[in-house]
Automatic annotation (TrEMBL):
<keyword id="KW-0479">Metal-binding</keyword>
<dbReference type="GO" id="GO:0020037">
    <property type="term" value="F:heme binding"/>
</dbReference>
<keyword id="KW-0408">Iron</keyword>
<keyword id="KW-0732">Signal</keyword>
<feature type="binding site" description="proximal binding residue">
    <location>
        <position position="97"/>
    </location>
    <ligand>
        <name>heme</name>
    </ligand>
</feature>
<comment type="similarity">
    <text>Belongs to the truncated hemoglobin family. Group I subfamily.</text>
</comment>
<dbReference type="GO" id="GO:0046872">
    <property type="term" value="F:metal ion binding"/>
</dbReference>
<dbReference type="InterPro" id="IPR016339">
    <property type="entry name" value="Hemoglobin_trunc_I"/>
</dbReference>
<dbReference type="Pfam" id="PF01152">
    <property type="entry name" value="Bac_globin"/>
</dbReference>
<protein>
    <recommendedName>
        <fullName>Group 1 truncated hemoglobin</fullName>
    </recommendedName>
</protein>
<feature type="binding site" description="distal binding residue">
    <location>
        <position position="97"/>
    </location>
    <ligand>
        <name>heme</name>
    </ligand>
</feature>
<keyword id="KW-0813">Transport</keyword>
<keyword id="KW-0561">Oxygen transport</keyword>
<dbReference type="InterPro" id="IPR001486">
    <property type="entry name" value="Hemoglobin_trunc"/>
</dbReference>
<dbReference type="GO" id="GO:0005344">
    <property type="term" value="F:oxygen carrier activity"/>
</dbReference>
<dbReference type="InterPro" id="IPR012292">
    <property type="entry name" value="Globin/Proto"/>
</dbReference>
<dbReference type="InterPro" id="IPR009050">
    <property type="entry name" value="Globin-like_sf"/>
</dbReference>
Amino acid sequence: MPYAIPRSLSVACLVLALAACQHSVRSERPLYDQVGGEAGVAAVVDGLLHRVHGDSRLNGLFETTDLEDLRRLVNEQLCEALGGPCVYSGRSMEDAHSGLAITDQEFDWFVEHLVAAMNHAGVQSKHQSAILAVLGPMRPQVVGQ
């Protein structure tokens, strides 16, 4: 006759397994923390804006932009998007890009600079993919406005 596991032991094992799963979900750090928190986000943003500013294909889009304000807003937006403690205080993406008629190609160049900035800042590729997945849905809010 096969050995029967007592019901109380089965229930105890199930409770322990569920507790372990719940603990692992709760201990998962926000993406913000995984990329280095405030310093990591700032490194990515500074690298991104430096690259964009040096790109003659894109820097004309920022001719009348207060670059320090842009830096602050992009930091806030990325921080908030990655689950950090910041709150984005800027305009909607549609309003911020209204009248610029940004093309898909320009958006792609911007993303290339973002990836280069993340690489330079040492952001792991799995985190880069997660960041791009968070920011990618903004494309229709930016392109063609």
